[in-house]
Amino acid sequence: MTAYRLAACVIASVLATAAAVAQTTPQVDLYRGEPYNAPVPDALKGAQVIDADRAIAMDAEGVPFLDVFPRKRKPEGLPEGTIWREPRHDTIPGAVWLWDTGYQRQSDAEKARLENGLRAATGGDLDAPVVIFCRADCWMSWNAAKRAVAWGYTGVYWFPGGTDGWQQAGGADLVKAEPVDP
User: Fold this and answer.
1) Is pLDDT of 145 > 90?
2) What's the number of domains the chain is made of?
3) Which helix (H) or strand (E) is 90 found in, with range?
4) Does 20 fall in a domain?
5) CA–CA distance, 145 with 127 (Å, rounded to integer)
6) In percent, how much of the chain has pLDDT > 70?
7) Does residue 112 belong to any structural domain of this protein?
């Protein structure tokens, strides 16, 4: 009887662990919307997922990096005379900031910005490597990388750690990003 209890405990433990892992690794087939700052999956079909050490190595190899962090715009309805300063966004040195290109639903301008940015970064070569990132636990980078894969890019590297992971791994100091609209 003791062997049966032990076996039952082992099986229950394995099933509980599998259920916990499944809960922390959501599988999504469509593009993800709000909230964008939430735990992301550990995989993206058609893309290679990289950690910070691999991202730092790829940067040293000259692979292009695309930052899809959103741009904060002047809020509507501010009282007349209010001074608005766009918040600074810091990124990985050499990265191209393709702002607002990771939303679930894209405007025509956002879609064109991502398409043109990918084309410029890869020289139009669908097989060329390109790293797509945002911040840690940012679904925008997942959405943008998923779109790149859907458009036929085969050299997509998704860096879910983003600028947070880069800094924690001792990557080069972040620099002020300038919005690009290729």
Assistant:
1) yes
2) 1
3) strand 90-91
4) no
5) 14
6) 83
7) yes
Q: What would the pLDDT profile of 81-125 be if each residue is shown by its tens digit?
A: 888 788 899 999 999 999 999 988 889 999 999 999 999 999 999
Q: For residues 49-60, give the mean pLDDT.
A: 98
Q: 89 and 97 in contact (C-beta within 8 Å)?
A: yes
**144: CATH:** 3.40.250.10
Q: Which pLDDT score is estimated for 25?
A: 46
Which helix (H) or strand (E) segment holds residue 157: the answer is: strand 156-159
Residues in the chain: 182
Q: Would residue 35 count as lying in a domain?
A: no
What mean pLDDT value characterizes the chain? 85
Q: Domain for residue 116, yes or no?
A: yes
The whole domain housing 91 covers: 44-72+83-182
Q: Are 129 and 63 in contact (CB under 8 A)?
A: yes
Helix/strand/coil percentages in the chain, nearest 5: 35, 10, 50
Residue type (1 letter), 169: A
CA distance 58 to 158: 12
On whether the CB atoms of residues 160 and 167 are closer than 8 A, the answer is: no
Handedness of CA 70, 163, 41, 128 (dihedral sign): positive
- What are the strands of the beta sheet with 156-159, ordered from one edge? 48-49, 156-159, 130-133, 65-67, 96-97
